[in-house]
Specification:
The structure holds two protein chains of two kinds.
Chain A lengths: L12 H20 L6 H26 L7 H17 L4 H25 L4 H19 L4 E2 L3 H8 L2 E2 L5 E2 L1 H19 L1 H11 L1 H6 L4 H27 L1 E2 L7 H11 L11 H21 L5 H23 L1
Antiparallel strand pairs in A: 1-4, 2-3
Chain B lengths: L8 E10 L2 E11 L4 E5 L6 H8 L7 E6 L2 E3 L4 H6 L2 E4 L11 H6 L5 E2 L2 E2 L1 H14 L15 H14 L4 E5 L7 H16 L3 E5 L3 H7 L2 E6 L2 E7 L5 H9 L4 H12 L6 E10 L3 E9 L3 E5 L6 H9 L6 E6 L2 E2 L5 H6 L2 E4 L14 H13 L7 H15 L15 H13 L5 E5 L7 H16 L3 E5 L3 H7 L2 E6 L2 E7 L5 H9 L8 E2 L1
Parallel strand pairs in B: 3-10, 3-11, 6-9, 9-10, 15-20, 15-21, 18-19, 19-20, 22-23
Antiparallel strand pairs in B: 1-2, 1-4, 4-5, 7-8, 11-12, 13-14, 13-16, 16-17, 21-22
Helix pairs in contact in B: 9-15, 12-14
Classes of the chains: A mainly alpha, B alpha/beta.
InterPro entries (chain B): AAA+_ATPase, ABC_carbohydrate_import_ATPase, ABC_transporter-like_ATP-bd, ABC_transporter-like_CS, P-loop_NTPase
Organism (chain B): Lentzea pudingi
GO molecular function, one term (chain B): ATP binding
Chain lengths: ~325, ~500
Amino acid sequence: MTALAPRVPTRFLPVLATVALFVLAFGVGSARYDGFASGQVIANLFIDNAFLIVLAAGMTFVILSGGIDLSVGSVVALSTMITASGLKAGWPVPLVIVVVLLTGSTLGLLMGLVIHKFDIQPFIVTLAGMFLARGLCFLISVESVSIKDKTFRAVATAAIELPGGVTITYNVVIALLVVAAAMYVLHRTRFGRSVYAVGGNESSALLMGLPTTRVKVGVYVISGLCSSLAGLLFSLYMLSGYGLHAVGMELDAIAAVVIGGTLLAGGVGYVLGGLAGVLVLGTIQTLISFQGTLSSWWTKIVIGVLLLVFIAVQRTMVRR
Amino acid sequence: MTESPPPVVEMRGISLAFPGVKALQDVDFRLFPGEVHALMGENGAGKSTLIKTLTGVHRPDAGETVLAGEAVAFSSPGEAQHAGISTVYQEVNLCANLTVAENILLGREPRRLGGIDFPAMRRRAAEVLARIGVHIDPASSLSEHPIAVQQLVAIARAIAVDCRVLVLDEPTSSLDAGEVAELFRIMRVLRDEGVAILFVSHFLDQVYEISDRMTVLRNGMLVGEHLTADVDRRSLISQMIGRDLGTLEAIEDAAEKRTAQGPVLVQAEGLGRRGAIEPFDLEIRAGQVVGLAGLLGSGRTELARLLFGADRADSGRLLVDGAPLRLRGPRSAIAAGIAFSSEDRKGEGLVADLSIRDNLVLAMQAARGWTRPLPRRTKDHLVEKYLKALDIRPANPDALVRTLSGGNQQKVLLARWLVTEPRLLILDEPTRGIDIGAKAQIQQLVTTLAAEGTAVLFISAELEEVVRIADRIVVLRDRRKIAELDGSATGVDEVVELIAGGAAPDKEVVS
């Protein structure tokens, strides 16, 4: 570590720690269970968590700006509901996609505007958004609606073959594209750098003449857009729409982002950290399913412990 | 300085009111290209408000601003910057989580192919830094650099655009002498390039050294505009505070007359903490003002924190009233009657979003214990008493502390400690960043407290102040107590020599 220190800036350390944790967890699995160390297990990590990767990317924007978005899980559910019932009503797939994405972004825009105009804590506003979106699901239907559209099913079940016989779904491709786009926006555009500035010190950012309003509202639009896209991916994954889909998923997304080294206080963190966080969570889940005798609740316990440890480590790093 | 070029900025009849306060009334202000213009006034005189009106943070209720012949009305700092007015505020307003280069160019990064061109950005930042003679790595994180360097980065940001007007709002308050000289060098370079510089500082020496012209404000109104060469300090000060300097002399007399010394209240025997301050002996008597003199980083604050229990001593012992007292933390110090008014009045001590009344009541209530509520009458009476005693302005107990000027916040902080009736009051830089009028009042207050039997440990970077006010002066250097002097028999020069002279660090001067 000391030998690395001069070359690796300290700001990358949290992300590297998460990556190391992922490698460690994966190594433990490979050593203990036959068939764990295969390309397909890694591919499955991505397939089973594609929607969470997209959510985490959107959440990273919000958390970097110093906010929080609790509505994302409900927006995922609402998106599955709109998708399923839209397709059931015979809407063409492109129209469904546009409606879902517009709904998510509009909801994000509204929450962002309320947060900014009335100067209310994001926690409360997005909590309201969470209830609203969840309620809207049941307004559409209280039952689970299955998706029978042929195009949709074809995309959902299509397998892309990678070298080595490993297959992934389109979901994974979309999720990775989102991560790449998010990285580009955060690191290469003025908007992205302003997100970091606002999260670092909002009043400074304002006095430096940065468009803080656009940033503060914009991050919620991005998060809303990502949530509805994640909802589409979730529909592809579940092939149904249901108001009780994705309950508590916002917390998984926040956990992944924080485990990935992004400071809840804002200003510090990377999209890749969120991706690494999702992979860590996924690996723990896989480990527990390979183990076979442990209840799946153990996943939650491990995530809880990890979160505590990571937040404590972050805290000491910030103090230093 | 001739008046041949037209002013680059002309503000006419500016008025601005905040709820309950007329911050500016019909103020005129002119700024010429290629001059350093000092804006003078006490805390609360309206300097910051005038600056913020110029830079688009506030919008005036009346009046007009003309920039280079065109009437302008900025609605945001961004617009003002766009028009060539750059500002460096007292507190460094940058983002410590980003790199130096980003802080300089944020919002106007060079772009290529739709993305930010980082190599070009670092090159551009290095150019700007080189222009003001600062050589640091633009790719390094801002948080790695000391405040003084961050201040220079803020200036680099200000001049990275084609700026016609540079506003420096108390840029020197956290800099040492060498850094100030460096800043002035940069200011002269920019002035000679034709930039109009608006400079605010509480240090008169600095104002006289650097400024060409000055505008004096008092209570939100214009008192006058002069060429610096035309006004001497005495008349400047009387313009600023609207009264003469008799008060300051009275304080000195009081310090000299104060001979009655009470019993030893607090005594430190070999008290020390590794890495903070070497073991020292110290005796503070009731009714005595002990001054701590030394440079920044000489261990002044560290010594005070040991006495207050904010840091744990790892050697020696502390006696209060002759009995050893083991300080487990500030709470036990407060219980023993020790109060510590920190130099960081924003971070520690005051709740900015509460009113003056609430801030005072909080302290009283904490001192009484939460189970015994204070009657409303007592509260009102005490709050009024301290508002009056400390001349806190506005004298409205419901005004939010956040809206007060620095000097008045300091007074509220002092009042907060005074309501607990401490026996030893430790004041760490109580007068930093506040104006002469408020300074004199705080010094006056210290004198009064001592006369009433309170022991005071007075820490200040301004030696004159320490020498004027203290009965005994403890001199620190390099985290070590090097001398203790009799305050009334000592001059500033003697103390300076002790602090500067590195020849005999172990010399114990006790007169």
